[in-house]
Structure formats: structure tokens, C-alpha cells
Amino acid sequence: MGDPGQKKVLIIDDERDICFLFGRILRKRNLKPDYANNLAEAIQSIQAETPALIFLDNYLPDGQGMDFIPYLKRHYPCTQVVMITANDSVSDMKRAFKQGADEFLGKPLSLVLINNTLDRLKDLNQTV
Question: How far apart, in Å, are the Cα atoms of 65 and each of 28, 112, 115?
């Protein structure tokens, strides 16, 4: 089931095309993508295997990703969180960082933007 040294990256987004885009990029970087389309699925995935990184959309069918960040940081403090949202106002960015996000990306996303973000995240590209 893949390289045991691969780090899991969870993409929490209800847009399947976003999940597909991230999956292709992450596999090329020898990372193991997993997907959740809502917060309930995300919790199950995280409990099954703690991810090194989570890309978290803000507007999900069962809640706001922004409100989920404190839970993640409290229970999984080593997991890095990147908030992704189409509503990328300065106030939303400040709120995401206050909640504990490590990075903040506005949609639409691009290959360059995602790769630059992955390059900035500490410990992600080091092998286990």
C-alpha cells in the first residue's frame, strides 16, 4: 500500500476536483494523499492515521473548517494545517492564523501556489 515512509496528507474539501488536483501533486512529491468531503469523514480519517498535513476548506457541508482548526491543533499538535478558501479576505486570513492555521491559500489554486506552500512547510519533505 505504498511506501511506509510516505507522509499522509489529508485534503478536506467537498469539491472533488480540488481533491483530485491535490492528489496528483502530492503523489508526485512522494506524499500519500487521503480525502474527506466533510468534517465527519475527516475525523474518521485522522483517527485511522494522523496526517502530517491537512489542507482544509472553510465551507463544508457539516461545518466551517475555520472552527475545526482549534480541535485539530489541540488533539494533533504536530499536524500542520493549511486553510484553503474562496473567501480569502484579510479578516478571514487573520482569523485562520489566530485559530492556529500554519498557512492560508485563496482559491482558485494553482500548481505553483500549492508547490510553493508545500516547500515552505517544515518537516514535510523529510523522510520518516
Answer: 26, 23, 22
Spans of all domains in the chain: 8-120
CATH superfamily of 8-120: Response regulator (3.40.50.2300)
At 57-72, the pLDDT tens digits run: 999 999 999 999 999 9
Which backbone phi and psi does 59 adopt, to 5 degrees? -100, 100
* Contacts for 35 with CB less than 8 Å, ≥ 6 apart: 10, 11, 12, 13, 19, 23, 45
pTM of the model: 0.92
* Tens digits of residue pLDDT in 96-121: 999 999 999 998 888 999 999 999 99
Phi, psi (degrees; rounded to nearest 5) at 28: -65, -25
* Residue closest to 106 by CA, chosen among 81, 127, 88, 126: 88
